[in-house]
Amino acid sequence: MARDLPQAPSALPPYFNIDADAAQAELEAPTSTAGFARIAEACARGRADLASRGLDAEGRKQLRLFSTWEITRYLIPVAQAHFRRVLRANPDLPQGVSDTEGGAKWFSLDEVLRLRAFFGAQGAKSKNYLPYRPKGLPAKLVAVANFKGGVGKTSTAAHLAMSAALDGYKVLVIDLDSQGSMTSIFGGQVADEWKTAFPLLARHYGEHLRGENQRRLDRGEAPQPLDETLAAALEMTAADVIQPTHWPNIDLIGAQLNLYWAEFQIPVWRMAARGWRLWDALTDRLEADGVLDRYDVIFIDTPPALGYLTINGLAAADILLVPLGASFLEFDSTGRFFDMLHSTFHSIEEGENMAARALGRPGLAFEWDAVRAVITRYDGAQQGELAALMQAYLGRTLSPHRQDFTALIGQAGEQVSGIYEADYRDFNRETYARGRETFDATYAAFKRLLLGIWRREERAAQDTELAG
SUPFAM superfamilies under this entry (predicted)? Predict the structure, then answer.
């Protein structure tokens, strides 16, 4: 017969014998609405303190320097000895700086890009010094989305943007999440919604309304008035909201809390003008303002919800990446996310195509060049079986590469920076190499998608030209 073992008082769970009077004495006064403002202000001060780490004397984020070892291992595929010979033979090229006489040379990313261009023009033709992008094709837009938070969405988007920049691409990052985490990573300064993507959406609606008003006038009807918001937006272009970052080849359209107002304003506009194609707003404005020609890759960080901002980001995207963890709850949530995507975009197509059929116009059909789910924060020892099961069900939709969780991810996050911004001298070399390796592999899997899609379009254009 089993018997209960005696327990010492100290072995009791912590939720036993709590004294109610002592608990009351620990309480603060009830919180009012004003209390939220005090908490928010404290968080703002703390956020500013954390964000100040890594800022230069003028209060701006500054990208670290890159050593000869890093450049020749990760950025320009040449032997260190050959790299040094090229610099000695070409004194007009950046020569780097050293902390000590005869010590390792360090270069800014601007200088690395100049060196890459030189090797691309003068180096061996068998090596890919310069990143591939077919002439005449626009930038590729990449949305990173999932409506479950904590899946590594912003981190994945930020590190892919940094990877592409290190690879030599010109990158634009668009933050559509009013929490502004991506904006913080890139040191963006966003005073209000007029420095976010909101004016681009408002201008698109304003142009639609202006066109409708002209048609009203042609019919002898009174036009709808343009309010101050729309009038101001009609004077703005993407150049007014794009800001440089501390990365020389990464620009940013930032976000802040007021951007969330768009989730309330867009449905008001949509109700007032049912013919306004809100899902085309971001794409049309980026194209009209020449953004798709000035950049190679555009990463869109979406909110963790399927609202109007997310719909704009997803509809604009050529490639959709969906980060998720290897857990049942995240797998289940991601399945529901894809189900909601189907319902949302199918509903838009059905509504538009009913009108198109009645008017004899071409129908609407959304299409993405590629859709990939990506497992993030992966622990092979604990999650291997579940990841394999997910792979079996999702097939090619799930990238076979798993983005491992390493200590470097957490350490870099504490510094409000990305792994590629971290100086490897601040970490254990093995930890740095392992942390960088998993993000390099994530970028490699993405780059295969990007290059394959560009090549497919390049060949299609060539076939069309030959047929013509």
Answer: P-loop containing nucleoside triphosphate hydrolases
